[in-house]
Specification:
The protein is α/β, with parallel strands linked by helices. It is built from 17 helices and 12 strands. It has 2 domains: about 200 residues, Rossmann fold (3-Layer(aba) Sandwich), CATH 3.40.50; about 190 residues, Rossmann fold (3-Layer(aba) Sandwich), CATH 3.40.50.2000. About 45% of the residues lie in helices and about 15% in strands. Strand 10, helix 12 and strand 11 form a beta-alpha-beta unit. Helix 8 packs parallel to helix 9, helix 8 crosses helix 14 and helix 12 crosses helix 15.
Amino acid sequence: MSTALQDGAKIGLVKPDFGVAGGFEHLLDRLQAILVSSGHDVTTVTVPGRQLPRPIWGQPDAASRWFEHPDFFNYLGMVHDTRRLELDDFDLVMSTQPPSYLAPHDRILGLFYHQTRIFYELAEPYIEAGFVDRTLHEAACRHIQAIDQAHLGGTVGWLAGSQECADRLVDAWRVSDPIDLLSAPPLIDDARDPSPWRGDGAVLCIGRLEWPKRAELVVAAGHLLQRETVILGSGGRLAHLKRLDGDIAAGRFDPQSLPATVLGNIDQAATKRLRLRPSTTRHTSPVRFAGHVSNDERNDAYRAASICIAPAYREDYGLTALEAMAMGCPVIVCADGGGLVEIVETTGGGIVVDPTPDAIAAGVRRITEDPALASDLRQRALDVRGSHTWARAEQQLMTAVERALAAG
């Protein structure tokens, strides 16, 4: 073992830079601090996450064809930049979001939460949503999967965010390298005592308003419940959600029987086909869109809520659910929620329902109308502060790092 490895390794943390700082970025900041406090020298190495049309690998037609499939060419651009990074000075590379696990290094620890999922398990829903032509996307999936598979040779281990993520590694790439789990704790620093639970508090949904987070399910459920429903966050689907809310309020759609294409799997073209239009008349709605808020405002929203709904499809992990639980707010997730279901089943801090507005609304009523159930869920939710800790995450991280440094 080299002197560098004995005294503390030089670790390169490779990631795409998308210009935003969400929960994953805050998690990386904490993990980097743990590595530094353990004596390692950590440097963040980035590539642009939002690519502009340009030639790739010397192919000038890439720029001219970019808009045929922007997601495909954007990924190719990131692969191009990642494969050209100079990383030889590092003893270990930790990869983060895709395609950073394709970095040119012979000792990579993959911090794995997902592939670019529209080219994997979300390919068919993505096509059905109307985002892209089927023939074009199927060809793009074959190409991306071949690139990923061809350049995974430097990975000596994986640190998966959930069993859902670990299973994807095996299903997609038949990974045989060691897979450790990283049970990240809630990203909330709020030492105040929990507020008393309010059964009449708002129904809350927090997160990025993107596909397939499915905030549409919460909008429709809010109308079925006719109780205050607050949606925190912003994203590319905010306008669609507001339009959907207005059309339900105007009586254009029955929230109990909305077409599946409306509930989360729809783009602007499909919206036009369904003739969803902003209501010309002001109608009363129980749904309120609060937009992006500060951390303190987010914490206050958790405290004031009776329930937090996390409706995402096959979520990688589910930090939002852990945050809500840490604030004493029971959670409702959907049966196809992936890592979210893992969290609820592990902690007992919420319930699992079918991914429909009616089932979500029934879940809210079940909790708010049963004080004994609500009290039990709340106590189990609060227990995540003791079960999901940074001490535990640090132990899991350091075990994976030591194993990766000893490999190869």
